[in-house]
Amino acid sequence: MEEEKRSRTLTPKGQEYAKEVKYKALGEAWRGLKSVSEEIKSLIAENPPIESAKDSYTKWMDKYEQFLNANDKYCALLQEDARAEHFERWYDEKDVWITNVKSKIENWFSSKSEEQQAIRPAGSSVTKAGSLANSKTSMKSKMSSVKLAEKAKELELQEREKLIKDKQALERKLKLLEIELQHQAESHEVQTKLAVSRAKSQLLDEIESDIDSQSVGSENSENNVTSEKHEPSNQRHQNDRMENKTMSKVEVMPKKSKVSDKGSAMF
Predict the structure, then answer these.
(1) Distances from the Cα of 115 to the Cαs of 16, 50, 76, 213, 263, in angstroms?
(2) Which of 129, 170, 220, 258 has the most CB within a 10 Å radius?
(3) Domain locations in the chain?
(4) Would you call 9 exposed, middle or buried from its count of C-beta atoms within 10 A (0-12, 13-18, 19+)?
(5) In this structure, are residues 30 and 94 in contact, taking their beta carbons and an 8 Å threshold?
């Protein structure tokens, strides 16, 4: 079982190759459907009997179903976003064209069936058995046309349902991605503001620290200057005192000499 799972797992190159193969098959199916569509459009433009157009319509329905299957197989290899892009850029335009062709074919079969119902055999040569056979043939033809139209409508509705589901899944994915991106943006904004706030706080702390250190240095400098100013002032006071004492001694000494001189003269 494990070997079987490994064999089914494709490498990236294998996946790309598988996509190319399925896309090529899808292109061939589209060209085949388009060719048959042009043929049946030309056929109903000639307004042939409804029985002769039934085979062409059956062939067209087979090509249409092959086209839908090829598209499903290709889309199975795509991611949701790639699948949505495929529908938007490639499939939707072709689906509109196919819907128009199918509508023309169904309208032609419907109107042709009504014409056959309105026609009644004229003349006494037509027997009752022949009338009954024609009635049965007409009824079968009408039922066949209705069944083909209903089958085509069913396939179209199934494809539209699948397309709606794919679009809804893509919208949900895009919505979740949008919410995630919004949350990331809000988280980034908060982180940025928080980083700015922390940087400002750190800068203010550094400025405050520088101011405190400068204030302490200034106070120490002022104290040193004050002490230097006081020391010379005290020294000057001491010098002044010494000078005063010396002057007083000098003034006293001459006076004593005069008195001594007078005493010597008296003797």
Answers:
(1) 53, 10, 45, 110, 187
(2) 170
(3) 8-117+137-171
(4) exposed
(5) yes
